[in-house]
């Protein structure tokens, strides 16, 4: 099977957009695999990984000695680090909209007129609500209210309601819980999780030594400095997790290390593993 994969590597290496580094080779291969999904979706995850190494080796040396040596040394790890930002979730009060129905008018845009208590009428100011006025010493029907004692309310014009002062008739107002953002901050921190394959002894030793421990595996700076010695097979950003009390910012931690994990191929044609996939189940030695 390896010979068949090596022949395939010879044929497709020139189709890859960038093979300068192992990571760029992998990224280019996954791009090609997505375009040719019908062909590659039947390939096992293990063979996809081998094909990546073969393509890189052949692009650099026109042989497979480099890839064979690298494959004999590989180890896998799940690493994560705290981004320093808190997780924000959708506000339950406004369902993430940032606005809610006005409390004063319940979203109708109008409220009962205080001047007439919602009747649409007010006591006639001309006759004081009696229906009669004195004229030339005699009581006659009030011309203002025609003797009805009331007139149309001067505030609501008889509609019984007036525009809500709280929302100005807009019916909605900013949510007080999220201050109009639609999101509220939680106590959880955001993390980045990456599943890597590496052939570097230092990285493997550090991951194995610190697996499922509170010890720092390496700094984010050091991890980046060694970027040509591993491949990020899959990367997940902004995961909300709740064990930040002992996790230091910009430091890498290892939640899983192994030589032969169960590999999977996701819809993006990238490799991942079920091992330690849910870091909420993180345990301490």
Quaternary status: single chain
What is the straight-line distance between the termini? 40 Å
Q: Unreliable segments (pLDDT under 50, ≥5 consecutive)?
A: 280-285
What is the arithmetic mean of pLDDT?
A: 87
Order of helices and strands: HHHHHEEEEEEEEEEHEHEEEE
**Beta-strand level of the residues, as a percent range?**
25-35%
Q: Structural class of the helices, strands and pairings?
A: alpha+beta
Helix content class: 10-25%
The number of distinct β-strands equals 15
General form: rod-shaped
Largest sheet: 5 strands, antiparallel
Helix count equals: 7
Q: Strand order across the biggest sheet?
A: 11-13-1-10-12
Radius of gyration over all CA atoms, rounded: 36 Å
Characterize this entry briefly.
With 285 residues, this protein is α+β, with helices and mostly antiparallel strands. 24% of the residues lie in helices and 30% in strands. The strands form six sheets. A five-stranded antiparallel sheet has the order 11-13-1-10-12. A two-stranded antiparallel ribbon has the order 2-9.
Give a structural overview:
The chain is α+β, with helices and mostly antiparallel strands and 285 residues long. Among the domains are: 1-61, no CATH class; 73-88 and 187-285, no CATH class. Helix content is 24%, strand content 30%. The protein contains seven helices and 15 strands. A five-stranded antiparallel beta sheet has the order 11-13-1-10-12. The protein has a two-stranded antiparallel sheet with strand order 2-9. The chain has a two-stranded antiparallel sheet with strand order 3-8. Strand 5 (132-135) and strand 6 form a beta hairpin. The chain is rod-shaped and about 125 Å long. 28% of the residues are buried.
């Amino acid at each position: 099977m390896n010979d068949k994969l090596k022949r395939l590597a010879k044929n497709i290496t020139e189709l890859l957009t960038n093979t300068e580094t192992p990571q760029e080779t992998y990224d280019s291969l996954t791009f090609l695999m997505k375009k040719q999904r019908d062909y590659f979706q039947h390939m096992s995850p293990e063979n996809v990984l081998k094909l990546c190494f073969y393509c890189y080796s052949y692009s650099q040396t026109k042989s497979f000695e480099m890839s064979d040596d690298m494959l004999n040394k590989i180890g896998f790890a799940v690493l994560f680090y705290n981004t320093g930002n808190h997780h924000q979730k959708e506000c339950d009060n406004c369902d993430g909209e940032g606005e809610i129905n006005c409390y004063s008018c319940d979203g109708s845009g109008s409220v009962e007129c205080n001047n007439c208590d919602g009747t649409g009428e007010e006591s006639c100011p001309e006759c004081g609500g009696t229906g009669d006025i004195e004229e030339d010493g005699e009581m006659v029907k009030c011309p203002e209210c025609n003797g009805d004692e009331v007139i149309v309310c001067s505030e609501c014009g008889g509609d019984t309601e007036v525009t809500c002062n709280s929302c100005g008739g807009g019916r909605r107002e900013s949510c007080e819980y999220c201050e109009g953002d639609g999101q509220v901050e939680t106590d959880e921190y955001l993390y980045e999780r990456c599943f890597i394959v590496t052939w570097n002894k230092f990285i493997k030793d550090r991951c194995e030594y610190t697996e499922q421990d509170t010890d720092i595996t390496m700094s984010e700076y050091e991890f980046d400095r060694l970027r040509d010695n591993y491949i990020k097979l899959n990367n997940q950003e902004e995961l909300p997790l709740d064990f930040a009390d002992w996790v230091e910012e910009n430091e890498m931690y290892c939640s899983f290390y192994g030589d032969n994990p169960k590999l999977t191929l996701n819809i993006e044609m990238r490799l991942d593993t079920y091992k330690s996939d849910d870091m909420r189940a993180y345990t301490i030695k």
